[in-house]
Amino acid sequence: MNTAKKRWMDSDLELYRDNVRRFVQTEIAAHGEKWAKQQHVDREVWRKAGELGLLLADVPDDFGGSGGNYAHMAVLFEELAYAGDRAFGAHVHAIAAHYILNLGTEEQKAKYLPLLASGEMIGAIAMSEPNAGSDLQGTRTRAVRDGDEYVINGSKIFISNGYLADLIVVVTKTDPDAGAKGVSLMLLETKNAPGFKVGRILEKLGQKGQDTCELFFDDVRVPVANLLGGVEGKGFYHLMSELPYERLMLGIGAMAIIERALDLTVTYTKERKAFGKPLFEMQNTRFVLANLQSQAVMARAFVDDCIQRMIDGELDTVTASMVKLNLSELECKVMDDCLQFFGGYGYMLEYPITQMYADARVQRIYGGTSEIMKEIIARSM
Ligand SMILES: Cc1cc2nc3c(=O)[nH]c(=O)nc-3n(C[C@H](O)[C@H](O)[C@H](O)COP(=O)(O)OP(=O)(O)OC[C@H]3O[C@@H](n4cnc5c(N)ncnc54)[C@H](O)[C@@H]3O)c2cc1C
Predict the structure, then answer these.
(1) Which residue, by CA, sits nearest to atom 36 of ligand 1?
(2) Interstrand relation of 183-189 and 149-159 (parallel, antiparallel or unpaired)
């Protein structure tokens, strides 16, 4: 394990990490199997995390948050990953809340942030559609103004927290002829929303306990006051402005998973023997693991630098895309190479490395695919 001290950690954060770790072990990791079977976490865990102030730790206390900064969120994302959790959707929840915090009207912030912070409301963000994933300009979900309301029609796919979500940031087209300027974000309260339907929870390769769903909107009415920021046509700009928060979050999770996989693999290869000696004493094992460890330590330096930049309000979209790209690609490589050392056991789901391998694959796809990250980076060159 890379034991270098993280620059963004301090003694208060160490204490905070101890609390988060205890919570994650007892209230999250312990339920992993049950949640995987039922395909969603229990609602109760959201309330408990909210009571401890973990959900929106970086939101000002005026809005019900804990008044911390991004370091507190980084600790949560790391601890979830170290514990092997891929079910609890605190990530998308925090993203949804940050749209409201940074882009919402004062009324929207006052109304929704305290409920999201306490876990009374669970958040989701619905961008992707059957025919519009990477290319969000292809969004077909329409929001048409009718008096004091918008009427939403369309559908979304692959929406994390989709089954449990109480508040969904929905990407809509308010003017289909205006390209990017015709996109608007609507805040949809799902409870008692006629015409809103959650489809089935999708069967996935990994991340089985996460409720990834299809959503359907059939003349769903949303008050005009729930247009994010109160101005039509700003949706695309809103999406772009929040990308660094989301992409770094994905990078942090990947980093912690890489570190966990290397720990597990070093331990296993020191114990498992073949041809009379531990696997770890074979040159191939040593060279492969040394190589991965070197890449992990380099990646950690970059992730920590990005966390510090985010805390300082200086992380730009291109750098955030680099961290998402590099960590996603490295995560998948590390899972594959590490799994190989487990031989047949590495194909058995009861071994954590197997689960981690399956869970990791989507990292190169969601939150913007690796190819889209490269496009963004190349455009800046
Ligand atoms: C488990 C899971 C959870 C998800 N959670 C959410 C969520 O909470 N909210 C949400 O809105 N979405 C979510 N998604 C959707 C995810 O963000 C999209 O799947 C992703 O953006 C890719 O879109 P797509 O699936 O339509 O693929 P496509 O856009 O059809 O892409 C297919 C392939 O073409 C490549 N490609 C596309 N455009 C280009 C280009 N210009 N240059 C080079 N290659 C290109 C892509 O990189 C990819 O390899 C989730 C997906 C999964 C699997």
Answers:
(1) 371
(2) unpaired
Burial of 1 (0-12, 13-18, 19+ CB in 10 A): exposed
> CB of 267 within 8 A of CB of 9?
no
Considering the entire predicted model, what is its pTM?
0.97
What DSSP letter does each residue of 93-136 carry, written as one string?
HHHHHHHHHHHS-HHHHHHHHHHHHHTSS-EEEE--BTTBSS-G
Q: Ligand 1, from 88, 156, 171, 366: best to mutate by most atoms within 8 Å of Cβ?
A: 366
pLDDT tens for residues 156-202?
A: 999 999 999 999 999 999 999 999 999 999 999 999 999 999 999 99
Q: Whose CA is nearest to atom 29 of ligand 1?
A: 134
Location of structure tokens 């693991």: 289
Q: Is residue 209 within 8 Å of residue 283, measured between CB atoms?
A: no
Task: Read off the DSSP letter of residue 73.
Answer: H
| Model confidence band, residue 1 (pLDDT cutoffs 50, 70, 90) | low
Q: Which amino acid is at 62?
A: D
